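On to our target:
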Amino acid sequence: MRSQVRLLIRTSRPLGWLIAPLVFLLGLTAFGSPISPLTILQLILLTFPYCILLYGTNDIFDYEADKINPRKTVLDSQEIETNFFPLVKYLSFVVAIALFASAVITINLTNIIAMSFLLFFSYFYSAPPLRFKERPPLDSFSNGIIYFFAPVSLGASFGATLLDIPIQVHFITACVMGIHSFSTIMDYSADKLAGDRTFAVVLRKRTASFFTVIGFTIAYFFSGFQGSVVGYFLIFCALLAGIITLVPSEKFAKYFFYSMGIGFSVVGVYEILRYLAFFF
C-alpha cells in the first residue's frame, strides 16, 4: 500500500498540484466570485486528483517511448510498472466522473463546457486515437486549453459566462501555447533520438521559439496589459524566446523555460493577492 501511494504521488507530479488551482483562482477573483462549497470542491479536485488523471494518462501511453528516451529518468518520467496501470486507470476514471459531476451540480452551462474541454484535452493529449501531443501544433493548442483556458474559465464561470470572458484570456491562452512550444526546444535532441514527434522535432527549434515570440508580442500590444506587471512579464518572455530564435541552444532554452514558469507563477500570485487586498 505504501509503495502504491508513493507511486501515485510521484505519478501526479506534486509540483503540478498548484497549477490548475492557481489559474482557477485567477478566474474566480477576476469576476469577484464568492467562495462557496462548490468552488472549494472544484479547487480541491483540481489538485492531486486531477493530476492523477492528467499525468497518469500520459505515463501509461508514453510508457514504451519513455523507456528509450535518454532524458527520461525514474523520477521525471514515472516509468510505473505495468501492474500499476489498472489502478491508475481506475482512479483516473473516478476522478473524471467526480470532476464532471462537480460541474453538473453547479447547474452552470459555462462551468460544464469548461470542464468538458478540460477532461477532453487532458485525456486525448496523450491517449489515442487523437493523441494531440504527437500532432504539432495541436500539442501546444491542447496545452493552452489544459493549463489556462479551461481552468480559468471554470473559475470565471461562478461570476460570468463564456461570453463575458475578456479577450485578454484568449491572449494569455496563446502565450501558454507558446510556453509549451518553447519547452520542446530544451528536449529536442533526446526527443528526436527517441522518435517523439514534439513541436521542435517536427517544426524545428527556431520555429518553436518564434511561435512563442509571436504569441507574447501580440498579447503585449493588443491585450491592454502595457505598463502593468503582466505586461512586463509578456515582454520578458518575448525577449527570452527571441534570444533562442537567434541562438537555438537547448541548454539556454531550459533555463529560460524555467524562468518563464517561475515568472508566470509569481505574476499569478501577485494578481490574486492584489485582488484580495482590494476586496478586503
User: Anything to note?
Assistant: The radius of gyration is 19 Å. The CA atoms of residues 73 and 79 lie 8 Å apart.
